[in-house]
Amino acid sequence: MxxxxxxxxxxxxxEFKLVTKPVDVKVTExxxxxxxxxxxxxxxxxxxxxxxxxxVKDFVNSSDLLKGSGPMFGYSTYTFDDGSSITARYTGxxxxxxxxxxxxILSGTGTYANATGTGGFESVQSGFKGAGLYDGRFIVKxx
Length: 143
Prior knowledge:
It is a single chain. The chain is mainly β. The protein is 4% helix and 70% strand.
């Protein structure tokens, strides 16, 4: 086991800023229910971690929104430049234009091999057009 893997074993809190953008999203309006839509598709993001690292985020998202508010869920994989990754499922909701959710870490590779844990995210106000800005964190447990 390498020194860096030993140093990272245990529990680690990773805080980050995240910018996301839809890549291939399908929006379907529900017949006879004004303002109801189902959205599903691929998204992409970049996470800037407090420790200086950057990860790309590939994810799929599904949401059921009535006039812009409602539940959502998806699956995210954050990949760091050393090839390590964290894959998590999230559930959450959009309300009054703000998104908030919780992560459950499903797996990891490299530094995060066999990772488990939790986390969360919350949207923050931004001037980005067509992109979202979030505060996020993982509580990662590695063997």
